[in-house]
Automatic annotation (TrEMBL):
The protein, known as: Cytochrome P450
GO cellular component: membrane
Pfam families associated with the record: p450
Gene3D superfamilies given in the database record: Cytochrome P450
């Protein structure tokens, strides 16, 4: 017993010494790291970070350290020493050197849900090729020529079914899911898409929970749902492959068609992972911005009135036509300001993580090989606002998201009026969202306006 006690005391004191050494100014300077604090052993400053994200303003963690240490600072969060950057120049350098000096880095609990062939996890030349393929499926020309009609139609279809009290966050998610399924594999909403969506909701929950893989945990249920979603997508891939071989494919110009008919020779598993990750990437982000735009507008009547004016003018020009066209989207300057401001205030992706592939010199400091970097996307005195990231991993959906949100706002504003059904609150942990899914009571606007 005495032996055990002595061993325990020796171990804890040496760990504590190690911690002191690690944390001392001396060792930090010797390593050439940016200034900062590694916090407590093992947990570092994770608790401070989490409690900051639980407040109404999520940035006190970064702001306080930027004020104290400058735009580059060292900390220790989620089990790893990490250098945070709120410096535009350093951020550009990190993002542009993707695959050379830095690479993206996700914990295995996230990779298991995404699938190893997802764009977010790909590296090197394959990533380059697939990133540009994804970009080519969501660029302005493709949106204008192919996707816009469906975005307009599916948004109207959804809004026309709203009556009384609706949970805006849930409805916005339904819309973005249906739009993505249509874009990826040309399916219109129906029973199949709805049952896929139910499994998919369980899968998404897995991203924001502790990764305990038991059947009764949220993460365990998410892994199970992932298998079901992958099976459902796999069936569609096999069916389309067969149709192509038999020559009765009916020329569907969607992402699945491009993956099957391009010269990549992808396996079913690769295609399924790729599609699944695209469904994940655009879903939570776009629908949250839709919801928060409405919340912020409701709380800012002047901006709401100005936005209404912009959209009523478009509607008045269109006389009997219910549909929107690309040229209408291009005449929504104030809407774009609303989207930008929502992205800025909502702080939906406050930063992205990278890992140093070698010792890197960054603005006179050294980032040791294997260390994590958090590239801040939030606007601050030293940082440009970059909600869609940058470099080779720039969000391929940046234009598509804008179009979807703008079309949504147009039809919402011209068809419906709403009031919040309850007080709701913006929270930033574990993700940016409203606490009660933003319940609103909706009413049709007078017929003469909405159906002109
Ligand atoms: C408001 C909505 C959106 C926001 C704020 C957003 C933000 C971002 C950010 C910051 C990144 C960079 C991640 C990194 O550097 O590690 C990213 C990547 C990505 N986004 Fe988006 N996104 C949005 C909508 C969409 C949509 C609609 C799609 C659908 C096509 C999409 C697909 C992706 C994909 C596939 C990646 C991974 C790119 C890669 O790793 O090469 N996003 N997004």
């Amino acid at each position: 017993m005495a032996f055990l006690l002595i061993t325990f005391l020796l171990c804890s004191s040496s760990l504590y010494l190690l911690f002191l050494l690690r944390n001392s100014q001396f060792s930090r300077r010797k390593l050439g790291l940016p200034p900062g604090n590694l916090g407590l052993p093992f947990i570092g400053e994770t608790l401070q970070l989490i409690s900051a994200y639980k407040t109404e303003n999520p940035e006190p963690f970064i702001d306080a350290r930027v004020t104290r240490f400058g735009n580059l600072f060292t900390t220790h969060v989620f089990g790893e020493p990490t250098v945070f950057s709120a410096d535009s120049e350093a951020n550009r350098f990190i993002l542009q050197n993707e695959g050379k000096l830095f690479e993206c880095s996700y914990p295995s609990s996230i990779s298991n849900l995404l699938g190893k062939h997802s764009l977010l996890l790909m590296k090197g030349n394959l990533h380059k090729r697939m990133h540009s393929l994804t970009m080519s499926f969501a660029n302005s020309t493709i949106i204008r020529e192919n996707l816009f009609v469906d975005i307009d139609r599916l948004v109207r279809l959804n809004l026309d079914s709203w009556t009384g009290r609706v949970f805006l966050q849930d409805e916005a998610k339904k819309i973005t899911f249906e739009l993505t399924v249509k874009q990826l594999m040309s399916f219109d909403p129906g029973e199949w898409t709805e049952s896929l969506r139910k499994e998919y909701l369980l899968l998404i929950d897995g991203f924001f929970t502790l990764p305990l893989p038991f059947f009764f945990t949220t993460y365990g249920r998410a892994i199970k749902a992932r298998t079901k979603v992958a099976e459902a997508l796999g069936m569609i891939v096999r069916k389309r492959r067969k149709e192509i071989v038999e020559g009765d494919e009916g020329k569907k110009k969607d992402m699945l068609g491009a993956l099957l008919e391009g010269d990549g020779g992808f396996s079913d598993e690769e295609i399924v992972d790729f599609l699944l990750a695209l469904l994940v990437a655009g879903y939570e982000t776009t629908s949250t911005i839709m919801t928060l735009a409405v919340k912020f507008l409701t709380e800012t009547p002047l901006a709401l009135a100005q936005l209404k004016e912009e959209h009523d003018e478009i509607r008045a020009r269109k006389q009997d036509s219910e549909t929107l066209e690309w040229s209408d989207y291009k005449s929504m300057p104030f809407t774009q300001c609303v989207v930008n401001e929502t992205l800025r205030v909502a702080n939906i992706i406050s930063g992205v993580f990278r890992r140093a592939m070698t010792d890197v010199n960054l603005k006179g400091y050294t980032i040791p090989k294997g260390w994590k970097n958090n590239v801040g996307a939030t606007a601050s005195p030293g940082n440009l606002f970059s909600p869609f990231g940058g470099g080779p991993r720039l969000c391929p959906g940046y234009e598509l998201a804008r179009v979807e949100i703008s079309v949504f706002l147009h039809h919402l504003l011209t068809r419906l009026s709403w009031v919040p059904a309850e007080e709701d609150k913006l929270v930033f942990f574990p993700t940016t969202r409203t606490l009660k899914r933003y319940p609103i009571n909706v009413q049709r606007r007078i017929k003469s306006l909405s159906h002109r």
